[in-house]
Amino acid sequence: MAHMQQDQESKTVQKGVVALLQEFIQCSRQFSAPQHRPILQWSYDQRMVNTTALEFRGIVAFLLDGVPHHVAGGWHPSKKLAQRDAAERSLAFFVGKWGEQLLLDETKPTKAVDVSAGASDVQALAEYCRSHSACGGDVPKWSHSWSGGECTATVQVSLLGVPHKFGGAAKPDKDAAYADAARRVLWYFQCPGYQSLFAPDPRSQAVMAKEIPAPPSNWACDGAEIEELRTAERKTILMRVQNRLQQEFAKQLKPGQSVWNWAYETDESDTEWPPLCRAKVEVSTIGRTFVGGWIRGQREAQVEAGLLVADYLDRGCGGRETRAPSSSSDVGSEWSSEDGSGRIGRWCD
After folding, report:
1. What is the C-alpha separation between 237 and 63, in angstroms, rounded?
2. In terms of DSSP H, where are the helices of the chain?
3. Which of 113, 119, 173, 205 is the most buried (most CB within 10 A)?
């Protein structure tokens, strides 16, 4: 028996945490996912740690009990280490900490939230977090955003020492958005009185689409990290876009052919250093030319044009030329753009 147990432990170590996480999610699925859709969907943030080195953070998305989850790991010098760390954290929380909490709840059922008559759902969530041991007494932290005249609330709750962010549905006003998000969190915790408010939808985009919808950008970052990510995005944009073009259009490229050709224009009337410059890049494999905006320094001008190429690849927009908007600093040239409506908004903004 001892020998068999050692063999099993050895196999578990050899299997790896990513495979173990996938098995755990597969065993927890309520609905059938589309064919060929990966159980675990990975993405990575990156930041500069010095002038030459990058660090990566793995983010894994999966459906657990019909609900989409996104888990972010820590920063590591390689994507492989970042992926392993995110998988380890996921298993440690959902199998370890959360499993222990479920056993505790079975022996000591959660009581209904004790709030005064007429209290709002937001107040009920605050009282739940103060009284429930899994939340450690921390109160929820709220934020919201507006889009298309509708408000979406996000609430951060500490759960077993791990910060969790929950998003609600878009609502016509702030109060309704906060109430909706609070009800969803209380349902997720299966708080008495809220257990039946929602149910996972087997026809939702999170279940049926090829990819689980992404969370809000920079959801796992604080203010300082957001700035670091933006810096890394700009410094590595040219390398990443060039690699992407080489991968997507490898069959169209002839041996030794460059994926793009660059040209630059400087403002000869500018007396400051570095001078105003803008870049034009021709990508022959897709038959398009991209013209960046005026900016100081050739490197920054190249980055601006590279961002437009990335936008095109992400959005699949039509047209043969993409330009940055005109500005008061434009000088007369064959590259001048009289209409800024053709510019694509940069995804890093």
Report:
1. 31
2. 2-15, 17-28, 79-91, 98-107, 121-131, 174-188, 205-208, 223-248, 298-315
3. 113
Two structure tokens written together for 326: 């005109």
Give the pair of three-digit tokens for residue 205: 């985009």
Query: Which pair of tokens denotes residue 262?
Result: 């660059």
Rounded CA separation 36/69 (Å): 19
Phi, psi angles (nearest 5°) of residue 93:
-80, -55
Which tokens go with 343?
């510019």
Distance CA 207, CA 201 (A): 8
Residue with tokens 């300082």: 224
Which sign, positive or negative, has the C-alpha torsion 55, 45, 229, 75? negative
Position 310, amino acid: A
Tell me the two tokens of residue 36: 């060929």
Return the residue matching tokens 């400087």. Answer: 266
Q: Mean pLDDT in runs of 10 for the chain (349 residues)?
A: 47 73 88 83 87 87 94 95 96 93 77 70 94 91 95 96 95 97 95 91 89 87 71 82 89 90 94 94 93 94 93 70 46 37 28
Q: What is the DSSP letter of 300?
A: H
Residue 342 corresponds to which tokens in the numbers above?
């053709």
d(Cα 217, Cα 225) in Å, to the nearest integer?
12
Tokens of 235: 């410094």
Integer-rounded Cα Rg, in Å, for the chain is 25
